Amino acid sequence: LFDCPKEENDGGYAISSYRKVQPRLGTIQDLKAVASEFHKSGIHLVLDFVFNHTSCEHEWAKKALAGDEKYKNFYYIYRDKETVDKWNSTLREIFPQVRRGSFTYRRELDGWVWTTFNSYQWDLNYSNPEVFLAMAEEMLFIANLGVDVLRLDALAFVWKEMGTVCESLPKAHTLIQAFECVAK
Questions:
Q1: What is the pLDDT of residues 108-159, one digit of tens each?
Q2: Residue 17's pLDDT band (boundaries 50, 70, 90)?
């Protein structure tokens, strides 16, 4: 239900902003009001929290595309095709009927961005502690609207280590536990 591109959005899982609702569904204030009404009726509000990736139209991705090093480090971006091929050699292709590999070349960056699911969904680089802090802030913003439960989407894919399949790695579980600590 969060803001996403009109065309390429993977059914809403390509988030452009965690602080805006898709206009056709209302506003963030409407979401807060719905949460309040649900609570009055004893209903818990459960939403998906897409924390593995953002849309390429997210503010962070746009800043990365503009050359901002801080935000380029929010994602996995490689200029060296050999490095991309080395990563791809151990990764499972999630949608092989759509595209090959887990990276998308972006001319603006003269490099490849990690895109596990779709070319417009950029994987976040949790080896950069600033990413965890930024996403924890987004998670708390959503929780403070009155959302009771956040389902962590694509959690098996959040941690990357060269030479592995990059799915359900031990540090992914540690990361999930860290998010749980933030939520308490």
A1: 999 999 999 999 999 999 999 999 999 999 999 999 999 999 999 999 999 9
A2: very high
What phi and psi values does residue 90 have, to the nearest 5 degrees?
A: -115, 0
- Distance (Å, whole) CA 182 – CA 119: 30
- Report the predicted TM-score, pTM, of the whole model to 2 decimal places: 0.94
Q: Which residue has the tokens 């897409």?
A: 50
